[in-house]
Amino acid sequence: MPGLSELGLKPAAPVLETLLARADIVDTAGSSFESTLFGLFGISNNKHADLPSAAVSRLAEGGKRDDAFWFHTDPVFLKATADRLLLFDAEMLDIRPEDTEGLIKLFNQHFSEDGWYMEAYHPNRWYLRLPKTPTLNTSPLADVIGRNIDQYLPTGNEAKRWCSILNEVQMLFHSATANMQREADHLLPINGVWLSGGGCLPKVKPVFAKVMADDLLCRGLANLGGIECHALSLDVLTRKDEGGDAYLIAHNPLLRPVLAADPEGWVNGLDKFECWAVALQRMLQKREINRLSLYPCDGRVFQIERQGLRHFWKSRRAITDYLLGRK
What we know:
Elements: H1 14-21, E1 24-27, H2 33-40, H3 53-60, E2 69-80, E3 85-88, H4 97-110, E4 117-122, E5 125-130, H5 159-174, H6 177-184, E6 192-199, E7 210-213, H7 216-224, E8 228-230, H8 234-238, E9 247-250, H9 255-259, H10 263-285, E10 291-294, E11 300-305, H11 319-323
Parallel strand pairs: 7-8, 7-9
Antiparallel strand pairs: 1-11, 2-3, 2-5, 2-6, 4-5, 10-11
């Protein structure tokens, strides 16, 4: 993360840096957390359609399995400036259950004749069911946070119609009772939704014996594959298991500080991740695992074999070198 030193921050993760230095770097499919996860479960990216993250995440939240088409319709605040429209996501809005209930009820009433249905299992995460599949490509919410939305708006044959619908939702929410109450309570209004991750539940390849994740998308993919899934826990990680089956650990707490442009939070998160690196290195040394593959979700995978730990001539480098893509 460039600029850390100028802020007086000195990220240090000596064990992680050593593992990265002694790994073989291989190109892999997936240039984001989402696309990497789908690729690991045997689902490739289709340039003509979204990866169906909404249907999968909804399943992890407790939604029933079905064959319907689902979109993420995440609540956002859109801030107009002189020449752009900036997006801020729910993590910055302090959304209350009554806000979500009121706005979703308003949405469903307004679009009832279209056969659309919106629901939420958490105030920050909303889902939209459509009666038929639209011809549309969208951008993940994570790509848009804090940015001008113009270059991230939907594309495809139905893009013009859906951009018009998003504008209609803005007007609908503008005078909503829920937003009037939020402004009276000195809270930012929820004046729009962000559409992304459209699709139906996919078929996955259950290539892992166990999954460890707090992320909804990963937990949903594990559910689809009938794979045992645990919350992120060093205790579970270091619990001895027989056999040499492949395990997947999806560790993404470092993502939010990046999206929020919070370098101090990122450095603190790196300190915590170093504990995982220490545990994984020890498991390699003790022959509890044979290979460790680290996916930074940027098109690379760092593969570390047990014997590679002895390659002392491969000296470690600063973690920021890897962030900048230096090999």
